[in-house]
Amino acid sequence: MSAPTVAGLVLAGGRSRRMGGGDKFLLPLAGRRLIDHVVARLAPQVGALAISANCDPALLADTGLPVLADAPPSRGPLSGLLAGMSWAATALPGCTHVATAAADTPFFPEDLVARLMEAGAGTGSATLAVSAGRVHPVFGLWPLAGRRYLEEFLASSEKWRMIDFAGRTGWREVDFPVSGDSDPFFNINTPDDLAAAQRRMEHG
């Protein structure tokens, strides 16, 4: 189910040290790049979609999506979120929220945005995904009205974690079930993780 007032943002940052460097989101998984799996899963859930990445935009031109670079100095995912909010304010008329998803997490729920909206719409707080007792701030729903607070946070803080920004106004949580060993927010950090994701794809 699409949320027409929500803009989606794929966060494709990070230095991929444990993967040996490079742009991890371009790695192949089951015949497609990792980021293609994430885009295909998030696009039907939102009214518009962009990618936050500081790579050469030509690498992602075939997605047909806007590629948003951080304004310097980059503060990690929160700088990506700010760029996404600025884009969403003009790209999606009536936009109320930005939903974020990580580019290295190809199995996140297909009802992620709908469930976050159900819990967080009408509040001024972020709404974050939780599984197995762990909060996943990269999978969050962020009120567009909070853009000014994010600008102030980035300018005044010494640490720029998403969870710390969410804590400024408090956040709501939505718990997503884990089936066996299949956490929906399993992310790919190492070659072993990539091999495990390939096996999971092969077994449905």
Characterization of this structure:
- The chain is α/β, with parallel strands linked by helices.
- It has one domain (3-202): Spore Coat Polysaccharide Biosynthesis Protein SpsA, Chain A.
- The protein has helices spanning 34-42, 77-91, 112-120, 147-156, 162-169, 191-202; strands at residues 3-11, 28-29, 32-33, 46-52, 67-68, 97-102, 126-131, 134-143, 171-175.
- The strands form 2 sheets. A 7-stranded mixed sheet has the order 5-4-1-6-8-7-9, with helices on both faces.
- β2 (28-29) and β3 (32-33) form a beta hairpin.
- It is globular.
- The protein starts with a strand and ends with a helix.
- The mean pLDDT is 93.
Which key features would you list for this structure?
single chain; 204 residues; alpha/beta; 7-stranded mixed β-sheet; 6 helices; 31% helix; globular
Number of domains: 1
How does CATH name the architecture? Alpha-Beta Complex
Average pLDDT confidence is 93
Q: What is the CATH C level class, in words?
A: Alpha Beta
Q: How many β strands by DSSP?
A: 9
Which structural class matches the secondary elements? Answer: alpha/beta
| SSE ordering | EEEHEEHEHEEHHEH
Classified in CATH, the superfamily is Spore Coat Polysaccharide Biosynthesis Protein SpsA, Chain A
